[in-house]
Amino acid sequence: MSYLRYALVTVPLVVLLGILSGRLAGSGYGNPWFDALEKPAFMPPGWLFGVAWTILYILLGLVLASILHARGAGGRGLVLGLFIAQLLLNYCWSPLFFALHQTVSALVVILAMIGLSAAASALLWRIRKPAALLMLPYLTWLGFAAALTFEVARLNPEAAELVQGGSSSDIIDETGGH
After folding, report:
1. Burial code of 21-45, b = ≥16 C-beta within 10 A, e = fewer?
2. N or C: the chain end with fewer CB closer than 10 Å?
């Protein structure tokens, strides 16, 4: 029964922090900077990100509950550390990409997330196999998100210099007029 008690806290917490990270960073379509970027052909519609991340954050909350519930399991501390580290990077990704416009740094962060998540999953397999399996959709999505991030960075080498609100062909003369 204590797994359920953990999940009643961890699932809403993980989901809420994920939503907060995205909202505070102005994630997704509707962000003028993001809207101005050239996107890869395989970029999914905006609504899919909200659905996917909600499901993934629920799964991550369940994984965290499983780790916390595995008291006394060998390697639990290391798994918890790796899991928390990747989750913190996850919450940093949106501000880094959408608010700070650092596409290459965001790619490095997502690759680190993949490495930490894969390591946590491998170690978790020894402790709680079902929880390790819950990490597979997340790892798959992170791979897809890394490919998107790479392509956005490649297609927009000067993304950090884009003016908030998109680019403009207007030239302002020295008197302040157009």
Report:
1. bbeebbbbeebebbebbeeeeeeee
2. N
Owner of token pair 């157009």: 178
pTM summary value: 0.88
* Structure tokens given for 75: 């390697």
Evaluate whether residue 138 is within a structural domain. Answer: yes
What are the pLDDT digits (tens) for 56-78?
Answer: 999 999 999 999 999 999 999 99
Domain span including residue 49:
2-158
Q: pLDDT (tens digit, 9 = 90+) per residue, 24-38?
A: 999 999 999 999 999
CB 106 within 8 A of CB 96: yes
What amino acid occupies position 136?
L
How many separate domains does the chain show? 1
Domain presence at residue 31:
yes
Calculate the alpha carbon distances from 91 to 22, 46, 151 in Å: 8, 19, 21
Q: What is the CATH number of the domain that holds 57?
A: 1.20.1260.100
